[in-house]
TrEMBL record:
Record bears the keyword NADP: no
Originating organism: Candidatus Daviesbacteria bacterium RIFCSPHIGHO2_01_FULL_36_37
Location(s) in or outside the cell: Membrane
Protein name, as recorded: O-antigen ligase-related domain-containing protein
Main location: membrane
One GO CC term on file: membrane
């Protein structure tokens, strides 16, 4: 494995350890630039990739992918959002950590996987998930290595994070990859990946993240449906079912998701728009869905005042605190606990459109090519991972963190490799 691929493996495997922070001193400018272990590893991987590229004398075309135009639009939208942020320096930091560096890493990863394959990427993600799972086990049974005491007091594990939901957000997609490898392999090593999948699911159960568990259930259903789609024709109670039927019905999965989303938010609105009566009737206390409803309501008011540019990068928190925070619930929040609302309020309508178009193109290309490639199980897993993010994104934000933004672009690099591996 090349030096660049080695650094890339380290970046992926240790992405959750962005929590290790420090400063790079610049005495000439009298500045200390904040950084993380993850950022240092990303920079080393980018430098090694660039050096390898110069030595190879390859054409710049080796970096091109099917998503370049949308990525450029997405990057441009996030960049201009800096100038609408109430915290310009904070906006630059968010742009650097959540957009620029992960996207550059995406292209470096695409370049390397075209030379050596994407197996090391998948295994690095699996190792990352294993590290978090082992830490969670230690937390559960010994009370050691606890990063979020308030979560452990409630019986929830959180890995290296300050929130159990953060662990679920990161670990869910990795569990699906482990399941896809189990389905693909024909030797006894497959059972190792089955064990890793079951371990990841156990940790998800211990997080008690309702959004994570719902997303995992949805992703596993996609995997089961995918298995039926790639298997030979089979019989259920003497009725022969043709695999082709399942393949043709893939197009209805996005439609079902849209219907589910509409039903979900309709029910939330009907319940919580009359919350005082609801809570009196059901004696509900500490209802996190009610908290989210209040945040969403405030965010929508914020977007009504600035529909084009939102609050700017790193702008939601201050705008929410100063103007839009409901008096009934004074807790502080970094983001509005919804993927769509967060992209809109942080990157403006242009950033949201770019993101949604990117997701649409990913789904379209995967569903178009899933049965034309050498590894249909990986293709199914990638669709399931995207679905996991969309479902969990109904109540949380599976992007706006150092590790989550990196995981998103690593998976997109896998998607690029999958689409080329026909």
């Amino acid at each position: 494995m090349s030096l660049a691929a080695t650094f890339q493996s380290l970046v992926i495997a240790f992405a959750p350890f962005y929590i290790l922070r420090g400063y790079i001193p610049l005495p000439i400018l009298n500045l200390n630039i904040p950084t993380t272990l993850l950022e240092v590893l990303i920079i080393l991987s980018l430098v090694s990739t660039f050096v390898g590229y110069l030595k190879s004398k390859d054409n710049l075309k080796v970096f091109r992918t099917k998503f370049d135009r949308l990525i450029l639009l997405f990057l441009f939208a996030s960049f201009i959002s800096i100038f609408f942020s109430p915290d310009f320096i904070g906006g630059i930091g968010i742009f650097r950590a959540y957009f620029l560096e992960p996207i550059l890493f995406y292209y470096a990863l695409v370049y390397e996987t075209r030379k050596v394959g994407y197996g090391f990427v998948i295994n690095s993600l699996v190792v990352s998930g294993l590290i978090l799972s082992l830490i969670a086990i230690i937390q559960k049974f010994s009370g050691l290595l606890v990063f979020a005491p308030h979560e452990l007091e409630q019986g929830r594990v959180s890995g290296v994070y300050n929130s159990a939901n953060s662990l679920a957000l990161y670990l869910g997609p990795i569990s699906i990859l482990s399941l896809s490898i189990f389905l693909k392999l024909k030797n006894n090593f497959k059972f190792l990946y089955l064990g890793l999948f079951l371990l990841n699911v156990l940790i998800l159960l211990w997080t008690r993240s309702r959004g994570g568990l719902a997303a995992e259930a949805g992703a596993v259903l996609i995997m089961v449906y995918g298995i039926l789609s790639v298997s030979s024709d089979f019989k259920i109670k003497f009725v022969k079912i043709r695999t082709e039927v399942f393949r043709r019905l893939w197009v209805f999965i996005p439609i079902l998701f849209i219907l589910f989303t509409t039903f979900f938010y309709t029910q939330i609105y009907q319940i919580y728009s009359t919350y005082p009566q609801y809570i009196a009737a059901h004696e509900v206390k500490g209802d996190t869905l009610h908290i989210r409803y209040l945040i969403w309501k405030s965010t929508i008011e914020m977007l009504k005042d600035s529909p084009l540019f939102g609050a700017g990068l790193d702008g939601f928190k201050s705008a929410y605190e100063q103007i839009y925070k409901p008096s009934i619930f004074p807790e502080q929040f970094q983001y509005p606990h919804n993927l769509i609302l967060t992209f809109w309020v942080e990157t403006g309508i242009l950033g949201l459109i770019a993101f949604l178009l990117l997701i649409y193109k990913v789904y379209f290309l995967l569903m178009k090519n899933i049965f034309k490639t050498k590894d249909p199980y990986l293709g199914i897993a990638l669709i399931a991972i995207m679905t996991y993010w969309m479902i969990h994104g109904l109540v949380d934000v599976p992007y706006f963190k150092n590790d989550l933004s990196l995981e998103f672009w690593v998976v997109l690099a896998l998607i690029s490799g999958f689409l080329e591996n026909k």
